[in-house]
Amino acid sequence: MPVSRLFSFILCERHNNHSSSLDTVAGQFFRATKTDQLSLAEPDHPDRAKDAFALCQGSELERWLLKLFWGALEAKSLGRDGDAISDLKTGLDKARLADILWRGSNWPNGWGMYMQAHEIDPHGTPNSVAIEAHTGPGGKLWGGSVTLGALQLRLGLGVASEPPENFIYRPGGIVITAKGAMVEKVIALAWPEPGHRWATYERQGAAIE
Q1: Quick one: pLDDT band at residue 106, thresholds 50, 70, 90?
Q2: Residue 178 lies in a domain
Q3: At the top level of its lineage, which domain of life is listed (predicted)?
Q4: Is residue 122 part of a domain?
Q5: How many structural domains are present in the chain?
Q6: 162: buried, middle or exposed (CB in 10 Å: 19+, 13-18, 0-12)?
Q7: By CB atoms within 10 Å of each CB, which of 30, 53, 74, 144 scores lowest?
Q8: Exposed (0-12), middle (13-18) or buried (19+): which is 204, by Cβ within 10 Å?
Q9: How far apart are the first and last CA of the chain?
Q10: Is the pTM of this model over 0.90?
């Protein structure tokens, strides 16, 4: 779908400018993940044999995911079975979510950004981006995922504090490797507190640990 379907003009100038830093961080993250995957996917890529490192703010990327799905919801771009998703049902009112998005308030325990094991789409490329809404009964939005090649970020709104085994909550970073390439492409995610697990992907096979 065109980019114009993923947003709606619902913000005043002050709030739109205030959130521009989130767009900057998301742009840095996705440019790094795209570049790293392309360099490993193409045998003749000039950067295939070069290590790479990028640093992004994890908490800003997490808030950007909320902005993305909330904005797409208001733009009526998210659907299920041909019908637009009707509401944002999270167990919190939108005023609390606005505090998280605009003022950096704490997320409820277990809510926020996850990374999940993800198999590469054999027909996709690191140039493609998939956005999927995750809904509950009645078409209510509970969260969603953004997939770029082998990498998948999920936003959990109401996820239990103990995630499934193959989920990494607020990953400390991502290491992307490839068979036959003795290099590492590292994207570190900075968080206010220590102790975050790292995800490791092999570009061919998309192993995660």
Answers
A1: very high
A2: no
A3: Bacteria
A4: yes
A5: 1
A6: exposed
A7: 53
A8: middle
A9: 32
A10: no
pLDDT tens column, 144-183: 899 887 788 999 887 655 666 778 999 999 888 877 668 8
The predicted model gives 94-112 an average pLDDT of: 89
Residues composing the chain: 209
Residue 176 lies in a domain: no
* DSSP 3-state of 16: helix
CA distances from 133 to 129, 136, 146 (A): 13, 10, 9
Under DSSP, is residue 20 helix (H, G, I), strand (E, B) or coil? helix
Q: CB neighbours (10 Å) of residue 82?
A: 5
Question: Bridge partners of 130?
Answer: 147
CA proximity to 118, closest of 142, 164, 149: 149
Contact 135, 85 (CB under 8 A): yes
> What is the per-residue DSSP string for 38-106?
HHHHSTT-TTTTS-EEEEEEHHHHHHHHHHHHHHHHHTT--EETTEE--EE-SSS-HHHHHHHHHH-PP
Please give the residue range of the domain that contains residue 94.
Answer: 3-46+58-167
Is the distance from CB of 38 to CB of 126 less than 8 angstroms?
Answer: yes
Q: Give the whole-angstrom CA distance, residue 141 versus residue 70.
A: 9
